[in-house]
Structures are given as C-alpha cells and as structure tokens.
Amino acid sequence: MKNSWKTALAVALLLAGVNLASAAEPIKIGSFLAVTGPASFLGDPELKTLQMYVEDLNAKGGVKGRKIELIHYDTSGNAKDAVSFAKRLVKDDKVDLLIGGTSSGDTLAVIPDVEKEGIPFISLAGAVDIVEPVKKWVFKTPHTDRMAVAKIYEDLRKRGLAKVALISGDGGFDKSGHEQLLKLAPQYGITIVADEFYGNKDSDMTAQLTKIRATDAQAIINFGFGQAPAIVTKNIKQLGITLPLYQSHGVGSKTFIDLAGEAAEGVRLPAAALVVAEQLPDTDPQKPVLLAYKNKYEAKYGPVSTFGGHAYDGLMIAVAAIQRAGGADKAKVRDQIEKTKGFIGTGGVFNMSPEDHMGLNLDAFKMVEVRNGSWKIVQ
Amino acid sequence: MRLAGFHVFAALVVLLAVLFPDNYFVTVVGASAGLHVILAVGLNLLMGYAGQISLGHAAFFGIGAYASAILTTRFGWPGLLAMATGLLAAGVIAWLLARPILRLRGHYLAMATLGFGIIIHVVMVQATRWTGGPDGLAGVPPLNLLGWSVEGDFQWYGVIMAAMLLAVWLSLNLVDSQAGRALRAVHGSEFAAQMMGVDTARAKTQVFVVSALFAAFAGSLFAHQQAFVSPDSFNLTISVELVTMVVLGGMASTFGAACGAIALTLLHQGLVVFEDYEMLIHGALLMAVMIFMPQGLFVGLSQGTRRVWRVLSRRRISLPSTDLTD
Amino acid sequence: MLDQLFQFLVTGITVGSLYALVGLGFALIYNASDVVNFAQGEFVMLGAMIAIALVGAGLPLVLAAIAATLLTIVAGLLLERFAIEPAKGASVVTTIIITIGAAIFLRGVALLLWGKDFHSLPPFSGEVPIQLGGATVLPQSLWVLGVTVLLVALVRAFFNRTLPGKALLACSFNRIAAQAVGINVRVMLRLAYGLSAGLGAIAGILIAPITFSSYEAGVMLGLKGFSAAIVGGIGNPMGAVAGGVLLGLLEALGAGLISSGYKDAIAFLFVLLVLFFSPTGLFGHKIAERV
C-alpha cells in the first residue's frame, strides 16, 4: 500500500517536471460572466463560446507556442460578485487579460479596479458609458444600446411613424436602453406617447399594453431580453393590437421566435448579421466568418445567439493582439488591442482607435423582421 | 471569561493580516466576510434573541449603502456625515415600522418583512434619477476618516475588521445587559415576559432598530469599499442568505451567527469553481448541515471538537472523563 | 376607460389565479406540519420542465402531464423522506432553511438536466383569444382558472370529508394528541408532501404555456404563491385563492391605474396594510400563543 503511494508520487513529480520542461507558461485569460441568474440568457452562450474556441486554439498549438488557459467565475449577474471575482482573477489567478462582464452593471462595477491594476479588459456588455469617455484599459465588442435605438428610430422615420409607445423591463439592459430611447427621440422627431414598465419575471403584461392601446401610438418599442419580450409579443397579439412592434437586439436569438410563436410574425429588430448569415450576399466579407462561427456553435450547443458572437469577437481580438504584441505583456497587449483595424468579427468590422474602444459603426446592425418563423433582412 | 472568545477572534483577524497581507482570500474575501458578520450578528439579535424573523433585512443594508452613495456622489457630502445620515434614516424607518410589523407573528412577520424588502428594492431599481437604476451608482469616493483616506484592499480589510470586532463586541455586551435578558424572555414566551413586567413591545422595537443600525452601518462601509452600489446586492436573495447565515451558524449565539456568515462567504468562493454544479452542491450542503447539526455549525462543530478532545485526553492520561472544556 | 378597467380586472384575475394555484401547495404542507415549504416553487418548476421534456421526447401532452405530476410527487416524497424526516424535532426555522436548501438543490438538478434556456409548452386549446365584452382572455388562462376552482373544491373536500384529510388537519393542530389517537404522523407528513408536490406540478404544467419555464422559474412563482398563501391566511386553501386573486388584482390595477414601474411596490404596500389591520391574513385562524 505504502509503496504504490510512493510510486504515484514519483510519477506525479516526474510528470510535473516534464510539463515544466516542455511547455512554456500558458497565457491566462480570466473571465467573469453571468452564466446563471437573470442575465444567463447572455452569459451562457458567451461562456460556451469562449470554452469552445480556447479548446480549438489549443488544439492548433495555442498562441505563439503557448497554450491558453481560460479561468472562469460565474457572477450570476451580481455586481458585487463581479468585483470580487475580477479581483480574484487578477490577484490570485494572476491572469494576463480579462474578457467578461456580461451586464453593464457588472462591467461598470469592475472598471475602477481594472484601471488601477492596469490589465486589458474586453467587456461583453452594451452600455455606451463603458467606452464613453474612453478608459485606458477597457474595450468592448457588443454594439451599444444607443446604436440599436438609432437603428430603430431610422427605420421608424423611413416608415413615416412618429408617435411611439415604450414598454421596457426592469433589468440593467432594459433600463439603459430605455434611457437611450428617451434621449435620442428628439433628434429623430419622435414623440413618446406612453412609457410603461414590467418586471422581467412577470407573467403577464396586458395591463400595461391595454394602457398603450388607448393612446394614439403608431408603433411600440419593447427593450428587453429573456422570456419577457416573448410574453409582451404574445400579449400584444392577444389584445388585438396591430401596431408595428420593435424589439431590441436583446432578443436576437431563435429562442425568441420559438417562445413567441406566431405572434412574432412581423416583429422588427436591429440585430447583428449573425442571425441572418445565410441571407447575406456572397460578396459580404463577414459571411464566411459568420457561417463558420454559427455552424461550429450550433453543431455543439444548438441555436446561436448574437451574445455568444460578442465573446467570439472579444477572444479573437485579444488573441490577435497577443500575437502582434509577441507575448502577454499587459501594456503591449493593450496597445495592440487599441490598434485593431479591419478585424472581421460576428458583430461587424472592428476599427479601434485611441478615441474609440469599440470600433463598430451603425452598419454593423441589420434591421431584421420575423417572417414565416425566421429572420429576414429588411431592405 | 465572557470575552475570551472575542479575544481569540480578534487575534485571529490580526494574525491573518500579518501573515498574508496581499492574499486575495484574506483581504478581499475576508473583508466581504467581515461585512457579512456585521449583518448576521445584527440580525441574530432580532432572530436569535428576540425570536423575530426578518426576510427583508437586506433593505436596511441597502438604505445605508444608498444613503452613503447618493449623498457623497450627488451632493458631495463627506463620507462620515453621509454614513451618520444613513444610520439615522435606517433607524427612523425601523422605528416607525417596528410597532405595526412586530405585532405580527411567525410567517406573517416573515411575509411583512419580505414585502418591505421588496418595496425598498423596487424603489432602488425604479428611482433611476437618484439611484442610477438597475446598473447602479458608480464613483462612490473613498471613505475619509479624519484625514486618512481608506483605499486599497489591505486598508479596507483593516477598517472592516475593526468595524466587525466592534459589532461583535457590542452584540456580546447587549446580550448580557438587562435589555438583553428582557429580550431573551420575549423569545422564550412573550406572554410570560409580559407577566413579569417586561415591556415586550418596547424591547422588540429597540432590538429591531439596533439590528437595522448594524445593517445600515455595514451598508455604508460596503458602498465605500466597492465604490459602487447596485440593487442586486440588496434583493430578496440576500435577505434569505442573511437568515441562512444566522441559522446555519447557530441562532442565539453571537459567535454562531459570525461563524455562519464566514462559512457562507467562503462556501460561495469555494463552490464557484464547480460551475454548473455549484447550485446542486450548495443546496445539498445546506440541507446536510441543518439535518445533522440542527443547532447550527458553531454548536455542532464545538461539540464535535469537544468529543474528539475528550477521546484524546482520555487516551493520553487515561483518567475517567473529567470534562475540561465545560 | 371602462373597457380598460375591465381588462385590468380580467388580467388581475387570470394572473391571480396563477398565484392562487401555486399558493394552494403552500397551504397544504403548512396544514400538516406548520412549516412553509420554500421548495414549493421548485415543485412548480419541476412539473413544467418534466412535462416540457416529455412532450419534446414525443409523448402526447396528456400523458406527459400525468407522468410529470407523478414524477414530481416522487420528488416531493423523496424530499420528505431524506430531508424533512431526518430533521424531525428541529425548530421551524431550521426546517425552513432545509427547504431553502432543497430549493437550491432542485434548481441545480434542473440546471444540469435542462440547461438555462427557456422552454414552452403548447397551449391546451389554441391561442385564439376569447372576447369578454371589451376585454380579451387566452383559453389557457381559463384552464388555469377552471383547474384552480376544481382543485380548491377537491382540497376542501379532502380536508372536510375524508379520513386522511381530517387526520392531516389533526396533525397540524396538535401532533402529540394526533399520535395519541392513533394517527401515524409520519405517513401523514409524507402524504402532505406528496400531495403538495403534485399540486405544484399541476400548477406548473398549466402555467408553462403562458409564462414559459426554465430552471429558475420557481423562484418568482414560489414568492408569489407564498405571498398569496400568507395574505389569505396560512393553512386555509380558500385563503390562498383569495390572497392570490387579491395580489393579481393589485398588480394589474397598480400597473394600469398608477404606475407600472412601481406595481410590485404598490401590491406589497397593500399586503402590508392588510396584515397591519388583520394580523393573521384575510381568512387565517386567530392564533393563541402557547404559554
């Protein structure tokens, strides 16, 4: 008994020795995402994407001959946990780079620490405030909620609709979108005739929609994600409201159509090209990237969402920056991320600069409409 | 003798800081555990000694935190003044609420406190202009203590630990005071306590206010330490967690509550590496502890060590069991 | 305006019946053991998720619903046998923490089995809204309403007319006395957990087409059901229904007439007022403290 124990120890030591000799230190990527909790709709595909591609990169020999190690903690959408796990990643796990912060609340909460520690951080959250004003170490890959709002308002203008009713949830994503809806309305000549809220776990929104029905609104905009927008969509049908309905990019996943069923027909929303990848012309440079990501993700996990795509973009931008920097030196990697030019991701074509730590423009969004149970690009 | 445990506890806190001044699990997790201890010890006064349950305690924690955050960021108040205002606000609200709410018993009291917690949470989420809404309020300045600006994890560890020790010391003394004895009488039987001339309504109101003050104090420190507040730190889940800490550690014991607070904080840090299995294990552990140690961790573990101690001492000096620890 | 008000009322009642249905399960376990089972919402979730999984596997809806109810009953019995029974004699608060642990555990199981996505069941009889004057209601809501009424009648009949029901009530009044007259308290407790798990499952299956379901769906439904049961007067099945409908109406009217952002605050403010004026809920027994 004692002997076998000693042998095992010897083997373990030997293996550890071999390991040290053969491979260089891995590059450590730290990630804190809301994989459970109210924002799991976003965080779950993000984590799956990161895991899948890190595995993939390592199978191809890693970056600069070094393996990538992904260390992840679940914040369950709690800003307090985001702060504490970001510290754990930096202080205890000593990671080289951070990718994460599913919700804007999580991201905004960790920014002071990130700036103090001086570690590159690519956020996967939407709010404009994350990159405006520019923070030295903070970048982000998703489109901002302001862009989504601008896209919706542009479409309304094209259709000649000016009176709008808003109905939004009570989460961070919903509230910050709602703020942008109010802020941008005057620029586009939009009047807001109703402004209603619901709880993201509510089971019925007919009371709010009944109020909206009694106004002279010409369109309804629902900013939210998860199951609530599907319930809103169904309730609108139930009440016999025929106004055009706009959803946000928060429902850019097939799950929304599955849940809302027939009621989803005719719903419009701004979405990343990922959900309509097949419909893009072959000349579109994004098409091969989108299809590759989509097929890979769907083969393993099921319907793709644009949120997983943000994680893909973040990881690939980071990897390219590490490659250009020739290592994981924090300051050099930061400089290289800032120099990202013409990177074709799932969210669009990224051109970052010292003034722009996101690097996407409004073209990155497509206006899509649900027709016959799937997304169609609105021309 | 009464404070022996307290001195051991204090020594441990200092020792950890000296040995591991830059360890994440000491400074960051330790500080977080310290805040939880303040909250749990305060709630234990209400639950353990007065026998009144509260499923809305996170609301007072939040009132303290938001008072500090709003007054310092939006009005530029100094931190200590904002803290005092937060304490005052929490105290007054608790005092106003105490009479009607503490007339309720058992599950009805649980319901009412839960409702109160939800109302406060809704305000935090909806009053965006003041509270910053669900994404919260960032940029809370560092706390300034008579010219010393508290910054960095190590300094915060020091401040929160000092606050925690103060809370534990206060709690130990309160329990032993005349008011504390009146409280325990309320827990035993309110009717009997009344018969013996204890003004039970007054005793309950006092403890409710004190317990709210503990929570608001922790909240104010929390806001400065995080430099950030958001409603998800003060929701129903947190209230339930606080109750769990008190019961898990062992009700009606200051060190029991502290023990529960530390255990749950560490558990969360430890289980997060299990990813999707975290919830399953968390739930199973909670059930197991309560089934096998219905008196809580503190009593359960100290009985366990006592038993081990007895067995060991018997072996060594082979004397018939004289209980040394009692 | 009148049409609007009517729709608010209809919405309130349909949402309220949903809360009531969940609240019934709380009342049942409380009657047998004086314990509020915080895992009741998870029974609701389990019923829905199992039914969804079985329908997805190709089973017809009726069979899936029956199987899901039975499986949830098994889960309830297991909970009683392996978590509640071993803690016999523990204080009420300790038992509450055990049920909270059980709730987290069951959520963890559901997470591993079905992932984090939301799932839906097809409505039982289509989605064509039914006109009631100026208001509309979904056929599925009528299902919820109808089954709630039916179940309340059954639960009442069970407690008032059947021997096991009366024995169960006796346990809640005085456990030792119940034992003395030959009631097997342990069997009664199992019965209560089994029945309320079943009730929860039925609720979950009926609600799933309206609200969808996921591993976390039990949290909110449990909270609302708990509130319904308490406001109505804990232990009284009729009270749970009254509490549920009251809560639903408060939310709908609050959202419709005052402010949709603050509707939950408005609803709970009313709940607090109800408790201040009637400390044992709407239909609760007046409790005398045992000295």
Summarize this entry quickly.
Chain A contains twelve helices and 14 strands. Chain A is α/β, with parallel strands linked by helices. By secondary structure, chain C is an all-alpha fold.
Structural notes for this entry:
The complex is a heterotrimer of chains A (379), B (326) and C (291). With 379 residues, chain A is α/β, with parallel strands linked by helices. In chain A, 44% of the residues lie in helices and 17% in strands. Chain A has 12 helices and 14 strands. Chain A is globular and about 65 Å long. Mean pLDDT of chain A is 90; it is low at 13-22. Chain B is globular and about 65 Å long. In chain B, a hairpin with a 2-residue loop joins strand 2 (144-145) and strand 3. Chain C is an all-alpha fold and 291 residues long. The radius of gyration of chain C is 19 Å and the shape is globular. The mean pLDDT of chain C is 89.
What's the topology here?
The complex is a heterotrimer of chains A (379), B (326) and C (291).
Chain A: H1 2-22, E1 27-33, H2 40-59, E2 68-74, H3 79-92, E3 97-100, H4 104-117, E4 121-123, E5 138-140, H5 145-158, E6 163-168, H6 172-184, E7 191-197, H7 206-213, E8 219-223, H8 228-238, E9 245-247, H9 254-260, E10 268-272, H10 286-301, H11 306-325, H12 330-338, E11 343-344, E12 349-350, E13 365-371, E14 374-377
Parallel strand pairs in A: 1-2, 1-3, 3-4, 4-5, 6-7, 6-8, 8-9
Antiparallel strand pairs in A: 10-13, 11-12, 13-14
Chain B: H1 4-19, H2 24-49, H3 57-75, H4 79-102, H5 106-126, H6 128-131, E1 137-138, E2 144-145, E3 148-149, H7 153-176, H8 178-188, H9 190-195, H10 200-226, E4 228-229, H11 236-249, H12 254-271, H13 278-292, H14 297-317
Antiparallel strand pairs in B: 1-4, 2-3
Helix pairs in contact in B: 1-7, 2-7, 2-10, 2-11, 2-12, 3-4, 3-5, 3-10, 4-10, 7-8, 7-10, 8-10, 11-12
Chain C: H1 2-33, H2 40-56, H3 61-84, H4 92-114, E1 130-132, E2 135-137, H5 139-161, H6 163-173, H7 175-180, H8 185-211, H9 217-232, H10 237-258, H11 263-277
Antiparallel strand pairs in C: 1-2
